[in-house]
Design a protein that fits this description.
Elements: E1 9-12, E2 19-22, E3 30-34, H1 37-43, E4 48-54, E5 58-62, E6 67-70, E7 80-85, E8 91-100, E9 103-110, H2 118-121, E10 131-132
Parallel strand pairs: 3-10
Antiparallel strand pairs: 1-2, 2-5, 3-4, 4-9, 6-7, 7-8, 8-9
The structure holds zinc ion (ZN) (2 copies).
One zinc ion binds next to helix 1.
Length: 160
Amino acid sequence: MNDKNTQDVHGRCYCGAVRFLIAAETEPFWAGYCHCRDCRQAHAAPIYQYVYVEKRYFRIIEGSAFLKWYTRAESARDSFKRFFCERCGSKVYNYLLTDKDNSEVELCGTFPSLFDDQEIATNNTWSPQVHEYCAESIVDLSLLHDDLPRFQKEETSLPK
Ligand SMILES: [Zn+2]
Ligand SMILES: [Zn+2]
């Protein structure tokens, strides 16, 4: 994933109270579809699309007072939080503390479904690179005609 975003990308929650941007010149750290049960339940959706960027590129520009977070796994509370708008219930982003090249990196993962410009949501920069947790999928994957790698479980899902 070496594509760079060339202009700020704006997005908002369902009601519009929370607005965010991904700064220009951001390189997506990780972009894909997740089929895991945890994400499916959190989003009440059969499949979801995410794009993670380094935290410094992601900014809440309006409505931060509406943001609440929840994580089901107690053990992950310091490293993974799902932020949502308390007014409309829409997910806004995930915070993830992870490792890259043996050092900690803070990521924010948001959802192209929330981008103001839906054309941007589907261009190359933000396009999914992978299907994750296919072993848990509830959609018929044979109906998806893409050439993306399909990882079955967690150990194969992290970015290289
Ligand atoms: Zn909202
Ligand atoms: Zn997931």
